[in-house]
């Protein structure tokens, strides 16, 4: 009976992991990120970094989906090597990721995003044409009581400012900057 209970517990844990994690990368999936962010916002301030791999469609179209998957895995490895243990990484779309940073200021999160950007930029992804990989980043910060949709929306707006500004850069959301002005 103990073996059966143990096996059921193992299966339940495996199902929980499959329900909350991306199958390719092993990081949190979108639903788990949303739940996590909303849980943090009950009591904590939170920064959210949203990043998108630049020109990812070109990589997939030029070299195939297996190479695209290797790039995605390489980006996740770069993120995991740099983010602090208090942060959580999630994959929220094909080539789009989030880093959830509870109790971190916008300035600290912006610096972390710059470190992540540099880590990706210097990584050798071994693409067939020898080209490099870069990512664009948007950062938002909100006080306790916020919600995922707002935090993500502000970070996503900042991400697209970075994309329109030439890619491979970090932008802090204007709402986060206004919050910082009130702090100083």
Automatic annotation (TrEMBL):
It catalyses: 2 GTP = 3',3'-c-di-GMP + 2 diphosphate. Residues 44-175 form the GGDEF domain. GO terms for cellular component: plasma membrane. It holds the Pfam family GGDEF. CDD domains: GGDEF. PROSITE patterns: GGDEF. InterPro entries: Diguanylate_Cyclase, GGDEF_dom, Nucleotide_cyclase, Rev_trsase/Diguanyl_cyclase. Its EC number is 2.7.7.65. GO terms for biological process: cell adhesion involved in single-species biofilm formation; negative regulation of bacterial-type flagellum-dependent cell motility. Transmembrane segments: none annotated. GO terms for molecular function: diguanylate cyclase activity. It comes from the Bacteria. NCBIfam families: GGDEF. PANTHER family: DIGUANYLATE CYCLASE DGCM-RELATED, REGULATORY COMPONENTS OF SENSORY TRANSDUCTION SYSTEM. This is diguanylate cyclase. It comes from Comamonas testosteroni (strain DSM 14576 / KF-1) (Pseudomonas testosteroni).
């Amino acid at each position: 009976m103990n073996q059966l209970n143990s096996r059921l517990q193992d299966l339940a844990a495996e199902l929980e992991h499959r329900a909350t994690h991306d199958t390719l990368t092993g990081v949190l999936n979108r639903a788990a990120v949303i739940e996590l962010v909303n849980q943090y916002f009950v009591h904590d301030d939170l920064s959210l970094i949203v990043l998108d791999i630049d020109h990812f469609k070109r990589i997939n179209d030029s070299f195939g989906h297996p190479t695209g998957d290797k790039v995605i895995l390489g980006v996740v490895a770069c993120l995991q090597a740099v983010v602090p243990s208090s942060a959580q990484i999630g994959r929220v779309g094909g080539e789009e990721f989030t880093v959830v940073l509870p109790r971190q200021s916008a300035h600290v999160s912006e610096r972390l995003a710059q470190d992540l950007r540099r880590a990706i930029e210097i990584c050798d992804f071994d693409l067939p044409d020898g080209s490099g990989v870069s990512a664009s980043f948007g950062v938002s910060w909100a006080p306790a009581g916020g919600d995922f949709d707002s935090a993500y929306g502000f970070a996503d707006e900042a991400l697209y400012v970075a994309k329109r500004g030439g890619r491979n850069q970090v932008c802090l959301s204007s709402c986060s900057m206004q919050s910082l002005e009130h702090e100083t």
